[in-house]
Amino acid sequence: MPNAPGHGGKVLFSVLLGTFTVSLNNSALNLAVADLMATFDARASEVSWVVTLFMISMGMTMPLTGYLADRFGRRRVYLLGLWGFLAGSALGAMAQGLTGILLARGLQGMAAGLMIPLSLSLIFSAYPGDQRGRASGIWGFAVMIAPAIGPSVGGLLLEVSHWRALFLMNMPFALLGLLCGYRYLPADSVNRRRRFDLPGFALITLGMGAVLFSLSRVESLTDLWRIQALLPLTAGVLALCLFVRVEGRARTPLLDLSLFAQRGYRLSVILACLQSIILFGCVLLVPLWMQTALGFGPLTTGLVFLATALAASVCSPVAGHLIDRYPPHWCIGAGLLITLASLLGLATLTEATPVWMIGAWMGLRGLGLGCAYLPATAVGMQNLPEPHIAQASAMNNMARRLVSSLGIVALSIHYDTAVQAALQRGMPYTEASAAALQHAFLALAAIAMGCLPLAWRLGRAMTRHAPAAPGDMPSPDHALTTASARRPQ
């Protein structure tokens, strides 16, 4: 794709519209669970599939993005995903029952699974190497700001209108995204001879779907050992292990696992996975503390998280600019230190802690998030050959979803077990909850501290293999060259 002045900005704007639409819709719909339960006289476990099915279908579609982008072109596949998301939104708005809504959410999830991994690939292809950090920072702003305003927008629409409005609000953004996409996203080369790896697709789909389904049903240690969760979890893990073995022998693998042989990319995925545990761990723990222990309502809890998202969204473009100009480990390391400080602050929460103090610690966490979370992902893919970026992004996303789901289950089990043990010793519930949270936040702080040497190694690896001149793409390392040689041209 050309890197003419102004072209990159048009591509970035086009991709941001689609990314913003997906993130905004998903965060806004979380507020509709109570409304849908009342409207359709359904149980919470049934309505929770509105969120769960989206995540599972997205995780099952992501592995296809590399193959589809290679076979049909990134532009065509991305726009197909946006059309699918638009169709899912229309189907949801017209649904007459919960089944129709679930079908709509499944379609939206599959569409999002095509769009999200391709978004960074399309953006990177429109910018030279020395400007990709800045572009990914602006992309990160949209990724962070949409979930921040989503609950507010969703709450307002539910207050003045109907749950159908949460589906209808996507349509103007999606239509504008399609208009700009067809106008500004250039066509790219395709490989019509690329073969489809059916065994790999079957195994990764079964593995991702089974693991995510099982973990979404687990809230306590008792749940984990029930046959309904243990059987799909075991089957999913076995399928994923078999997938790795099959892909290593495939001539045209669905996912090129040899990308992990590149040190910078491998470190960035590990960093992203560890930070995703911190990110979603706080999403789990802070509402537990504020709503169940202190009795605050959803609005107050939402405002606390708004501080995180706003701070991260403001910081993300600045961090993107910094990683273009300076060695990336300084920015990522500073973000991790800020994250560490915020987690240690959250570990001091007591019943007497004022709400503004909780909001301040969460805002500080947002600054660390903006400096370290998305930049680590972007840095790891900056020097990859362009044809590999879509697969690299998909594998990064899938790894983060699996690891964060495991982390949430571990934290949930710890919290439940610790609180029950403290209550049996006669400790009041608020004190029991505070003690459990303190240990959980300290564990997350330990993870952040463990990320610091990884960030340093990532920065050194990327600096060592940086392109000789701005805009030059680095030559693939030996592992990537070997992998590419297996593919028919």
TrEMBL record:
InterPro entries per record: EmrB-like, MFS, MFS_dom, MFS_trans_sf, Sugar_transporter_CS
Subcellular location(s) per record: Cell membrane
Keyword Transmembrane included in the entry's annotation: yes
Occurrences of domain Major facilitator superfamily (MFS) profile (ranges): 11-463
UniProt KW Membrane keyword: yes
UniProt topology in membrane: Multi-pass membrane protein
Regions that span the bilayer: 50-68, 80-103, 109-127, 139-158, 164-184, 196-215, 227-246, 267-290, 302-323, 330-349, 355-381, 402-423, 435-456
Molecular function per GO: transmembrane transporter activity
This protein's GO CC annotations: plasma membrane
Primary site of residence: membrane
Keywords recorded for this protein, A-Z: Cell membrane, Membrane, Transmembrane, Transmembrane helix, Transport
Pfam family, any one: MFS_1
Classification via SUPFAM superfamilies: MFS general substrate transporter
Span list, region Disordered: 466-489
Domain of life the protein comes from: Bacteria
Xref: NCBIfam families: efflux_EmrB (TIGR00711)
Protein family: Belongs to the major facilitator superfamily. EmrB family.
Protein name: DHA2 family efflux MFS transporter permease subunit
